[in-house]
Amino acid sequence: MKTKIYSIITILFVSFSINAQIDRTKIPESGPAPKINIGTPEKFTLPNGLQVLVVENHKLPRVSVILDIDNAPISYGEKKGVEGFVGGLLGTGTKNISKEKFDAEVDYLGANISFGSESASASSLSKYFPRVLELMADAAFNPVFTQEEFDKQKKQALDAIKNSENSVAAIAVRVGNVLTFGKNHPFGEFTSESTLNNVSLEDVKALYEKTFIPNNAYLVVLGDVDFKTVKKQITTLFSGWKRGEFIAPELPKVTNPKTTEINFINMSNAVQSEISIVNTVDLKMSDPDYFAALLANQILGAGGTGRLYKNLREDKGYTYGAYSGIGASRYVSRFSASASVRNMVTDSSVVEAMKEINTIRYKKATQEELDIAKAKYVGNFVRNVENPSTIAGYALSILQNNLPSNYYETYLEKINAVTLDDIQNAAIKYFQGDKARIIITGKGIDVLKNLEKTDYIIKYFDKEGNPTEKPAMTLPIPDGMTAQNVVDKYLAAIGGKDKVMAVKTMMMTANATVQGTPIVMTSKMATPNKMVQEISVMGNVMQKTVFDGEKGFMEGRGQKMDMPAEQIADAKAANAIFSDLNYTAGTLDRIEPVDGKNMMVLKFNNTEVFYDMTTWLKVQEVKTVKTPDGKEVKVPTTFGDYKEVKGIKFPYTIGQKMGPMDLNFEIKEIKINEGVSEADFK
Question: pTM for the complete prediction?
Answer without folding.
Answer: 0.70
